[in-house]
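RECORD TYPE: protein structure
NAME: Aminotransferase class I and II
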Amino acid sequence: MVVGELGRTLGLPVPELVIIELDAAVGRNEGDPEIRDLVVASAGDNVGMAFLASAIGFDPAAKPKLDPMLAARIVAFDAFAQNMDRTAKNTNLLWCTGQLWLIDHGAALYWQHDWDGGMDGADSKFPLIARHVLLPWAGPVAAEAEWLTAGLTDAAIDAATAEVPDAWWTAPPALPPDEYRAAFAARLRARRDAASVYLEEADRARAV
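PREDICTED:
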């Protein structure tokens, strides 16, 4: 949710996100046992995304015309978020009414899964950006550093982390929700401030 809200703050095409309550009964009549088990296990509060009617998956093989600046900004944002899952194999992009939409940021911020609450790695490079599906369309990525850092203000980062319910701040490190949220926001600010490191890396990958 944090990544999606930050993308929306930056003006990127991310559908509206809301917190919805999912009733386990929704999955009871699902014929696929894997989907049924997943829905039942997901009962309670979840992140919901606005439905895009008539949307289709983005197909890079179709070579659609894209704005180079928009493509560069999406690459820059995904480098910031360390999103490893925007590749040709799984674009996590939709095409709807002549517009590109960004969805599913579940693979971003992967450092949080074994995080100790500190700043180690906040300024690290992100080699996986070389696999980004939009690199062939992107203009200069490092040129978007000012756009990225100016848009990801401290207030914007605080607002995005504030959207996450207290009950969801449960993974390591073992901190009270307010302290966890503050540490998470500090980590995101440190990542933002190191933009030149990972954006230049994206441009090197783009030039290959």
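COMMENT: Residues 127 and 163 are 30 Å apart (CA to CA).
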